[in-house]
Amino acid sequence: MEQKIAIDVKDLSKRFGKFVAVDRISFVIRYGEIFGFLGANGAGKSTTIRMLCGILAPTNGTANVAGFDINRETEQLKHSIGYVSQRFSLYSDLTVMENLRFYGEIYGIGPSVLSSRLEEVLDISGLKNWRNRIAGELSGGWKQKLALANAILHRPKVLFLDEPTSGIDPISRRSVWELLYQLADQGVTLFVSTHYMEEAERCNQIAFISAGRILKIGKPKELKKEVSQNLIEIECYPLMKASRLFQKIPQVVGLTAYGTTLHLNVLDPKAVEGQLQEIARRESIEIISIKSISASLEDVFATLTEKSR
Predict the structure, then answer these.
(1) Cα separation values, 252 from 94, 113, 276, 302, Å
(2) Whole-number pLDDT of residue 3
(3) What is the pLDDT of residue 117?
(4) I need a surface site. Which of 9, 17, 123, 192 has the fewest CB within 10 A?
(5) What is the residue range of 129's domain?
């Protein structure tokens, strides 16, 4: 049985005066899917999320989220979605339980249902033993778990997360993602904006956005496979001097620095190798090794961004 569509976006745009923040984007997300929205700061991620949540009116285009039109049914929409921001936005001077109970009442959840639902979200998020802890005293990771617990109190069909693990440590980040997997298994659609490429690997489908435009949409493995055919790794010294010179080669369509190596996406690896050696000899760059490698999502993003320019 085919999964139903949770989010259907068609030619969505947002302008602020002459500035185009989001430029005619389109995509489809199904229920139970984790959709990664990747891009640098200022790429249009947060603006897109605000439009899909019914907070910001689009300039052009439309979208259907959880069965509601974002242009005409914003109030109904807000009852079917949850939102987690990158910054902790609950009350720091209230306890975990006081925060959850307060927002549960705002959501309009009846007393009898709310009591059982509070226990459910405390259990799901692992916050049971922290129920009486002041929210402001929690670590970054536990604060995000509290924000997630709050966002799912009313059982939303779609959950928007705007860089939810920004600024928290790797162990806490992994723990938050375990919670997200649980929600996806329950059929909740997760729309996750991030600039962490390792988080994008966890998504079913990802979209790269740059300067308000979607560069590419697809599954992580498929996107990496497209780039891997022409990706080479060069270990060289000095690295940044080599980077500046190698990226000027016409056949180089993407370049990323990794430690003591450079990853180059090229049109023809064999033809480029001779040019690399020639530049290295002329500019006193030591090339230690050149080899073909598999692509990472960062390589994909670098290549797509370079092509868009």
Answers:
(1) 55, 59, 10, 11
(2) 60
(3) 96
(4) 17
(5) 5-219
The rounded mean pLDDT for the chain is: 92
CA distance 166 to 195: 9
State how many domains the chain has.
Answer: 2
Tell me if 142 sits within 8 A of 127, measured CB to CB: yes
Strands 189-194 and 34-38: parallel
User: 127 — phi, psi (to 5°)?
Assistant: -95, 10
Backbone phi, psi, residue 200, to 5°: -60, -30
For β-strands 205-210 and 34-38, DSSP reports them as parallel
Residue 207 has pLDDT above 80, yes or no: yes
CATH number at residue 289: 3.30.70
129 DSSP 8-state letter: G
And the tokens for 104? 């549960």
Q: Residue 195: give its domain's CATH number.
A: 3.40.50.300
